[in-house]
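Fold Annotation — chain and its backbone
Next Lines — sequence and tokenised fold

***
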Amino acid sequence: MSGFEDNAGGEPHYHGHRERLRQRFREAGADALADYELLELVLFRVLPRRDVKPLAKKLIERFGSFAEVITASPNLLREVPGVGESVGTDLAIVFAAAQRIARGELRKRPVLSSWSSVIDYCRTTMAFAEKEQFRVLFLDKKNTVIADEVQQSGTVDHTPVYPREIVKRALELSATALILVHNHPSGDPTPSRADIQMTRSIVEIAAPLGITVHDHIVVGKEGHASFRGLKLL
């Protein structure tokens, strides 16, 4: 356990700072806070007897943004002095909550009429992941999500994808449409030649079975790319 998580004892000199930061959040909202300040608010509860501003700044410096901190793996987080198991757990809880909220928004209505929710969900769940993941949203005939599954996880620049297995799973779920999603840990969401070829393979296998591929979305820290928008579908 690191020194940041020990009991400091004595009267906390940072109590006023904490209350001022909370008040600013209550009055002006999250947009009025820098990333490290929002991170401080998260750390207040897990480190109640420490000045967490230095640790919050150190985490932002190491990972780049609030989003990248809460999505960082526990192993990488523990490389930062001051981060113990409890800090890693609380950050993971924040990430899980963000995913659950985004998933809830996605399931409320047909995805084709709420495309921004689809993009938000994809970015929340995958944009800052350290390794490539290939996710499939399985849709029913009303284009509502009936299943959301990570089919494969790979390395920092490759994920093995098996088109026939994806279509087989769609048939098992009685899905009539798919949205394919994967991330580029490099940050650049531009589809690769392999991405394009793999997508075409899935479309060719799915189409004769009455299964439509609505889109393939690639997400990264720098944004997202839509195969449909790029006229690759």
